[in-house]
Amino acid sequence: MEAFGLLAYGFSVLLTWKILALMMVGLVLGIFVGVLPGLGGPNGVAILLPLTFTMDPTSAIVMLSCIYWGALFGGAITSILFNIPAKRGRWRRPSTAIRWRSRARRPRR
User: Fold this and answer.
1) What interhelical angle do 41-48 and 57-82 show, nearest 10?
2) For residue 79, which of 61, 60, 94, 63 has the smallest C-alpha distance?
3) How open is the CA angle 47-35-87, to the nearest 5 degrees?
4) How far apart are CA 13 and CA 33, in angstroms?
5) Residue 96 in this model has a pLDDT that exceeds 70
6) Could you report the per-residue pLDDT of 21-78, keeping only the tens digit for each?
């Protein structure tokens, strides 16, 4: 039962307003970095690392991980809109760029 108590404590730390706001900021910054061609998750973390120097460790790690995942999502956006294969991960298949590009160009009702 001690493990469940520690798990509940971890979620209570992560679900504070400060950490949730840092998650959103990290995701938005990661998406901006990921959309740029040639920059990915590790590069985005390296470029935006100085933002976390004055933060406490929990906030810094959460923000850096959100920057990483946001950059991966931003790379998928570039892949779909420019119709080129992505660099890494799930979106690497060329069929993904072709399939989602046709859906992105379809007129909406």
Assistant:
1) 140
2) 94
3) 90
4) 27
5) no
6) 999 999 999 999 988 877 888 888 999 899 899 999 999 999 999 999 998 888 888 7
Place of tokens 């798990």: 7
Residue with tokens 């509940």: 8
Cα-based torsion angle of the residue sequence 43, 48, 49, 51 in order, rounded to the nearest 10 degrees: 180
Cα radius of gyration rounded to whole Å, the chain: 17
Token output for 28:
């938005």
CA 106 to CA 109: how far, in whole Å? 10
Tokens of 89: 């991960």
DSSP code, position 59: H
